[in-house]
Amino acid sequence: MRATREPSKLAGWLADAGPKATVGTFGEASQFGELVVLAVKGTAAEQAVDLAGPEALAGKTVIDATNPIADEPPVNGVLKFFTGPNESLLERLATDAHFVKAFSCAGPPVRVCVRDM
């Protein structure tokens, strides 16, 4: 199931996605899935969890694929990041969900290599 604020806007995607595909609201998708993938803009993660309904996420694994990138434009080619990770905020919103960070798209130049420390 794919979640969106306006399911009618995904009618074209749904028609092409195959017979087992479904579209619904964030709340419907969080109730539907045994496993939830949170793949929204980092600054929208809090609102997405709120729309999903923290109680519907209770006991479920939520794969957090968001990146803490600010909405501001890059300065000298460098993206601005939040001051802290989304996970701690999201865990406070949905205390009974199990958040796992995965699929980060932040490139190697901004990562820390443990063996070099």
Task: Chart the SSEs and their pairings.
Elements (H helix, E strand, L loop, with lengths): L1 E2 L7 H7 L5 E2 L1 H7 L2 E4 L6 H8 L1 H4 L3 E4 L21 H8 L4 E4 L16
Parallel strand pairs: 1-2, 3-4, 4-5
Number of helices: 5
The CATH homologous superfamily: NAD(P)-binding Rossmann-like Domain
Alpha carbon gap, first and last residue: 42 Å
* SSE topology string: EHEHEHHEHE
User: What Rg, in angstroms, do the CA atoms define?
Assistant: 16 Å
Poorly predicted ranges: none
* General form: globular
Please tell me the total number of domains: 1
**Number of DSSP strands?**
5
CATH topological fold name: Rossmann fold
User: Do you know the CATH architecture?
Assistant: 3-Layer(aba) Sandwich
Widest beta sheet: strand line-up: 3-4-5
Structural class: alpha/beta
- Fraction of residues in helix: 25-40%
What top-tier CATH class fits best? Alpha Beta
Query: Beta fraction of the residues?
Result: 5-15%
Chain-averaged pLDDT: 83
Q: Main sheet, how many strands, which sense, barrel?
A: 3 strands, parallel
Written overview of the protein:
29% of the residues lie in helices and 14% in strands. The protein is an alpha/beta fold and 117 residues long. It has a single domain (2-116), classed as 3-Layer(aba) Sandwich (Rossmann fold). The strands form 2 sheets. The protein has a 3-stranded parallel sheet, with helices on one face. Strands 1-2 form a two-stranded parallel sheet. Helix 1 links the parallel strand 1 (2-3) and strand 2. Helix 2 (26-32) crosses helix 3 (45-52) and helix 3 packs parallel to helix 5 (86-93). The radius of gyration is 16 Å and the shape is globular. The mean pLDDT is 83.
